[in-house]
Structure formats: C-alpha cells, structure tokens
Amino acid sequence: MFTKDHIISIRDFSKEEVDYVLDRAEELEIYARGNESCNLLEGKVLANLFYEPSTRTRLSFEAAMVRLGGETINIYSQESSSVAKGENLADTIRTVAGYCDVIALRHPQEGASRMAAAFSSVPIINAGDGAGQHPTQTLLDLYTIRREGLLDGLKIALIGDLKYGRTVHSLAYALSLYGATLFFVSPSALKMPEEIKSDLKEMGAEIYEYTEVKEVIQEVKVLYVTRIQKERFPDPTEYSKVAGTYRITTDILKENEDVVVMHPLPRVNEIDVEVDKTKHARYFTQSFYGVPVRMAILSILLGK
Ligand code: CP
Fold it and tell me: In which order are the strands placed within the sheet that holds 181-185?
C-alpha cells in the first residue's frame, strides 16, 4: 500500500512502500523498453522544473511520462525562467501546479522540495535538492540491486564523495531497511556526515569506514562509486586536494571476480572506460532502470 502525496525523501518510506514501488517498476519495465505501448497516463502532464543541470533524471522522467502516454512541460534552468526576474519558489510552484498534474523539481537548495510541497496543489517529486536527497535515484539504485538478486543483507562499498553526495546519503538509509552492511570509502575530508552515521546506527546498520578501495573489495558484492561533487565545494583549492582520489580499473577488479560496479552517473574519471566492457559494469543498465522506476512513481502518485 502507498499513501504518499509527494516524494520528498527516502527516509519517509517504509520497506513495504519501497517494495511496492519496485514491484510496480517490474510490471512496467516491458513498456519502458518500448516493446509494448501503454496509455495509462493519457491526458496527464508532468512539469519538469530543473534549476540545476541534469541528463538522466530529467530525460528519464520525460521518457517515463511519454512511455505512459502522458506529456511533459519543462523549465531547464533558473536563467530561462522567471526566477531570473526575482520570482520566489513558492510563487513558481503555485503557478506551475495550475499547468500540470505532477511536478519533478531539481533545486540547488536542500529542503526546497519539502518547501515546494507545502505550496503545491499537485504531487511534488524531489529530483535532487542540493546535497540533500535524491529519492528517485535511490529507488532506481535499489531496483538495480534487486534485479541482481542482492537486495537483502547486501554488503556494499559506497565510494568517493560521501560528504556532499546526495545519492549515497539516500542509498545508505534505504539499504539499512534491508539489513545491509555498509563500507564507507572516502578521503578523510569527504567522510559520511556524523549525523547520518548516527541515524544509520540507530536503524541497526553495520557501518565500517576506510580510505582505500583495496581494503574492502574482497568483502563486498557491490562497489557503488560516486563523483567528487566539485560544484558543492565552498573552496576550489579543497576540491583540487581530493580530485582523482579514486579510480576503479580492470586491475583492481581482479581482486573480486563477481563484484558489481554501480555509479549514479555522470562519471568524470572515477571508473576507467575499460571497465565498461567487463561483466562488472552495471551503471548504464542502472541509468536505464530510471525509466521503469519513474514510470512506477508517476503512475502511483497519479492514482493509476
Ligand atoms: N544520476 C543523476 O542524477 O544524473 P543527472 O544529474 O544527469 O540527472
């Protein structure tokens, strides 16, 4: 059963609600692949309000809506909207809600989606709020892991920028619902925030911290690699100290023949392109799964 009006944070989800979304995504995957057509959301309109750059999230929401027979309207940047004239988010949301049935919002400010939900007469989906949450990415990450048959009791390494990376914050919470053991691998300046670790421990998660991938690779089934979030560093010199810290290569993968490599993308240079051709690579499959998962979310929120 699923009763949410908005999708704001993965922390608002119970395990049953996550399972409900993933089950629906599995049913809709055939339509996401374009093998059969579907008009479940015919006549419905999704507004994509993206105030930060995006390729996967925006386009997969758009593809999801189109695959379900619906339509989309878009704002691509702050500069191309009336935000550039000084309009506040509350007024934008109240206006756009009159043009559509559901809004996907990406915004640089943490908490923007929760605030938007307070002013919206249609469902708000958080498509990433600053260094905060990215719940639909988490749901597609979980879907990818479930399709590998690894969701329950997973041992996973979360690697890279654990301080600013919103995908790892959301994923760590969600995996805790499934009894995961979490291996955090990051430079000391980019460790998982203390408050998140403390919440995870309260949820019963087993947590370990390392600075090198080679210390954990034989222990885990999944390497979840992330980009260092250059745009969120207050001081560019601090970024230059940690840029390029981790790089997954075919050499290091020889340490674990079965490990699955995931990445929310975009990657910069954290995964060598040679890895793309190996049986380990799952990141492009993972980005495709954004379509069935977002189809599931749209259809559930719109009561179909
Ligand atoms: N994973 C993800 O959020 O990618 P985009 O920034 O391209 O949407």
Answer: 206-210, 181-185, 155-159, 222-225, 260-262
By alpha-carbon position, which residue is closest to atom 5 of ligand 1? 54
Estimate to the nearest angstrom the gap between the alpha carbon of 101 and the chain centroid: 22
Could you give the angle at the alpha carbon of 199 between the alpha carbons of 246 and 144, nearest 5°?
A: 55
- Asked if residue 173 and residue 97 are part of one domain, the reply reads no
Residue range of the domain that includes 126: 10-133+290-301
**What predicted TM-score, i.e. pTM, was given to this entire model?**
0.94
* pLDDT lower than 70: segments of the chain: 232-233, 239
From atom 6 of ligand 1, which residue's Cα is the shortest distance away?
A: 54
Q: Ligand 1 pocket test: pick from 49, 51, 52, 55 the residue with the most ligand atoms within 8 Å of its Cβ.
A: 55
Report CA(137)–ligand 1 centroid distance (Å): 8
What digits encode the pLDDT tens for the residues 225-257? Answer: 998 877 766 777 776 777 778 899 999 999 999
Residues contacting ligand 1 via CB (< 6 Å): 54-57, 128, 137, 264-266
